[in-house]
Structure prediction request, 221 residues.
Amino acid sequence: MTTHLHREIDNLKTRLLSLGGMVEDGLWKAVQAVHDRDEVSAQAVIDNDHLIDMLEVELEEECLKVLALYQPVATDLRFIVAVLKINNDLERIGDLAGNIARRARFLARHVPVEAPFDLQGMARRAQAMLHDSLDALINMDAIRAREICKEDDEVDAMHRQTYGMVRDEIRRHPENLEALTQILSISNHLERAADHATNIAEDVIYMVEGHIMRHAVVDKS
Prediction:
């Protein structure tokens, strides 16, 4: 039974990493669509969202099946619980990538408006956090996962700064209100994606150490 359980666990990890790769690719393409004003690429990200949703449901069902059939304990149980949580976070990031792609599609159809803040820098940071959280998962690296948790503050700070910058730009160019609102929404989606990447990193720590990080005080030094 143990051999069968570990085979199932390896299968869950493979499927989770495949989903993670799809989500990471979708987020990158959505951000690039904003930068390149590429409506076709944006639409492709939107169209792919249903596949991510389907894979998320299938993986959840597989986790529940393994729980019911094998009744795992200790490390194996912790792993499956973490997979369920990471699976949900990946699906949510996929939704956010779709939302960014919809903003990219809107912006591509209108007169170009420059973001009044470092949108690309914020996007790179959020993307790096997602990529690194998946690397930490592959390597079961709790040390790297803790570093990712600390990095979330940087994205939060960047997002807070966007409000004042966008407000000032709207005052100077009220004719760009709608486009600037869309750009601000992209910032919000990137900040939330970084939050979900942090959740994944916290779940890696739980997988490796059995320590629940949510709501815990994190050393920011």
Observations:
- DSSP finds six helices and no strands in the chain.
- The radius of gyration is 19 Å.
- The domain at 2-209 is CATH 1.20.58.220 (Methane Monooxygenase Hydroxylase; Chain G, domain 1).
- Residues 217-221 have pLDDT under 50 and may be disordered.
